[in-house]
Amino acid sequence: AATQEVLKIGQKLNEGKTKQIFELVDHPGLVLLQSKDQTTAGNAVSRDQMEGKAAIANKTASCVFQLLQESGIKTAFVKQHSDTAFIAAHCEMIPVEWVCRRVATGSFLRRNPGVKEGYRFSPLKMEMFFKDDANNDPQWSEEQLLEAKLCLAGLTIGQCEVDIMSRSTVAIFEIVEKAWATQNCSLVDMKIEFGVSVKSREIVLADVIDNDSWRLWPAGDRSQQKDKRVYRELKEVTPEAMQMVKRSSEWVSERVKLLLEPQASSRVVLLMGSTSDVAHCEKIRKACASYGIPCVLRVTSAHKGPDETLRIKAEYEGDGIPTVFVAVAGRSNGLGPVMSGNTAYPVISCPPLTPDWGPHDVWSSLRMPSGLGCSTVLSPEACAQFAAQILGLRDHLVWCKLRASMLNTWVSLKLADKKLQACSL
Predict the structure, then answer these.
(1) Peptide bond before residue 123 is cis, with ω within 30 degrees of 0
(2) CA distance to 23, 84, 104, per residue, from 122 (Å)
(3) Mean pLDDT of 95-110
(4) Full domain range(s) for residue 167
(5) Domain PurE, which positions (predicted)?
(6) Residue 338 is part of a domain; what is its CATH number?
């Protein structure tokens, strides 16, 4: 359970169907999201109390936000406060639900007759719905959102902001999808909302992501669904039926914790020709750490002590931990080729080139005998990224960090372009 600090609760800022939002007097810029023991469907046409729902929803949302935050996605989430509440950045909410679909089902089939349930979207299908209970949240086009000229916390929602939310929705879906796949669960579709942080004026993932936000099919089997549809499809609301709904939500909240755990340990073993290469290796180690990958540094020369190089190699092949070897050797690089010719594990050469001989030395890393699959990456940061891409095939947490990094790079370029255009005007 979360360790609970005493918070001075201010006025209620908002109340939705399943939560209340309060200001925090001693923490300007932060709010408390308090979940309610209520479950709803069809814009609250159906509404029932469900004891324990608040704790289940809060636990689920806190874990999903933690997964996204640790991956590098910008969210409003700060930390879980209690069993039924979490602290978040105060945002002005953009009144749009962004829906991302991997599989055609539900309302998509009604709106697109002729499409069979189970049709798979690759790339993902994106839809927007304007939050308007009175009109049943009508579907909006991008043009409608742009023409609405919404302004929140001093930020006008224009093309740049819409593009950022659209890109972010896809990345967020893919990260959550990848995490649920480790539990043999298919994320079928998911809805999210964004807000503009009152403090930083930047767009962040806000509101909640809980069992009401997605369709989740264990083993891809709709008959095993564990999401809000269990409640929505009840013929009759009885105490027994509500217990079944609660059990489904509990099943999810128990498993959602596992999404934060690595599925496989992995590592990068950095072999350097001499200690003069330590500074270069430290750059690689630091970049690996940003993906959560541990690094081991060893000194060995394939020219001067090939037997020792192969003994060190065998040490890391013998324990079954997925490993990428990185060879850091200046001048004539014997380390990468010798390693590559004697292991089935991936080997990357990352030679520390000098301005004087670098253009000549690099050929010892590039021109390989046949039968060697040793790649060469010159930048220490790019070398770590390549190692992460290899290990991310087995470890979803590494993959999620790579995916968020890709999004953040794209967003920073988009914002830089917007800023430059504003200066030019």
Answers:
(1) yes
(2) 41, 36, 11
(3) 97
(4) 93-259
(5) 266-413
(6) 3.40.50.1970
